[in-house]
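Hello,

Following up on my earlier ticket. Below are the two sequence lines again, exactly as submitted.
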Amino acid sequence: MSVFANCSRRGFCLGMLSAVLAPLLHMRSALALPDKLTPLIREATGGAEPKAGRVKLTLPPLAESGNSVVCKVHVESPMAPEDHVTSIHLLSEKNPRPVIARFYLGPRSGRAEINTRIRLAASQQVVALAVMKDGSCWTDTATVIVTAAACGVESKEG
Amino acid sequence: MANTRIQIPAVLQRGEVFEVRLLIRHSMETGGRHDDTGRPIPRNVVNQLLCRYNGVEIFRADLFPGIAANPYLTFFTTAEASGDLEVSWRDDAGTEESERVPVVVKE
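Thanks for your patience. The regenerated structure is below:
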């Protein structure tokens, strides 16, 4: 008797589907930060371990051109003198210069939200880090598929 | 040369959190491109930006070539008193520019 005897076609299809989807779902898990960025993340956070949550990084899942990609970072914070976001860092996994921008905020900001447009050299993961007044650090990532990479971002000097 | 545009709501209430929208006309040369003769075009991006509200720093940014040409940037601040909002920036070529808009806060 074959080992597949009690394996229905439906079961097989579901199994194959989950095998394909599992790595995709894993990619979505927020704390899979690119290893390459570890020293930069440490530099930005002053050693604090970034935790998932509080930060919401919004990027289109698919960008036709990497020259200008709409990017929004929102951090949940009361922005009070005793509890506010002090800095927001945008890092890229595959751009020749991994730091995209650093923003410094304070209690007078009222609301921790930044909108900008960024360049992306390839399909990649973008990381947003928010450092709080108490030194804690929160993060979110977004994966963008770029159809045409940003021209001129691929610098040889890195 | 006015390369910086700042947009804020015309009239604000005291304590209101409002959005500041900036648009700077700047090529943001990445330093990775070459001209027609093959010579590299030197990097020239707006690298530092500072926003002051009645002389007090409320927002600062370090920008890199990862920011798209003609940088667009928005952030928030709280309306405290009438006065002005000043944005100044500096690029790699040493150009410095500053632009201000009046802030009107209704009592």
